[in-house]
Amino acid sequence: MMVRIEVSKEINAPPEKVWKVISDLDNEPKYWHGTKSIKNIKVNGNTITREVIIAFKDSKCMETVVLNPIKSIEVSITDGPMKGMKNITLNDINGKTKVVVVWDIKLSGMMSVFTGMIKGHIQQGTEDALKRINADVEKQ
Asked: What is the DSSP-derived secondary structure letter of residue 33?
């Protein structure tokens, strides 16, 4: 069963400032607490292949990330207990930025039993991440 989660937040800063924070992928665990660690395996231009350890039982996921400067970050989760996409899109609204995060994921194995609970965790985690990102952007 595919799970779709959509969360958005308006940040009182131009997209360039928001991009500077969200495109620093090595800092992702600072904002996304469900991400414990990241190991970049291959960088090819704006495409990064990486290994991510998530909070759920320290599980390992493989991801391919495509950076579309000041527009979006497309994350393909290709292997692990969760597969699918996480897309972060920036929309300029008169000098402010609307950040939209959309997850389209499928949980596998034991995780599929807890789909409802995990969906709630991801939704809350995404809302919290956007609050932390907003706080950092406003400090700059």
From this structure: T
Per-residue pLDDT of the chain (140 residues; tens, 9 = 90+): 789 999 999 999 999 999 999 999 999 999 999 999 999 999 999 999 999 999 878 899 999 999 999 999 999 999 999 999 999 999 999 999 999 999 999 988 877 888 888 899 999 999 999 999 999 999 88
Structure-token match 């290994």, residue found: 51
Amino acid 98 reads K
Which residue has 């956007």 as its token pair?
A: 130
Say which CATH topology domain 2-139 has. Answer: Alpha-D-Glucose-1,6-Bisphosphate; Chain A, domain 4 (3.30.530)
Distance CA 71, CA 66 (A): 11
Structure tokens at 13: 């800063």
Other CB atoms closer than 10 Å to residue 117's CB: what's the count?
10
Q: Domain map of the chain by residue range? A: 2-139
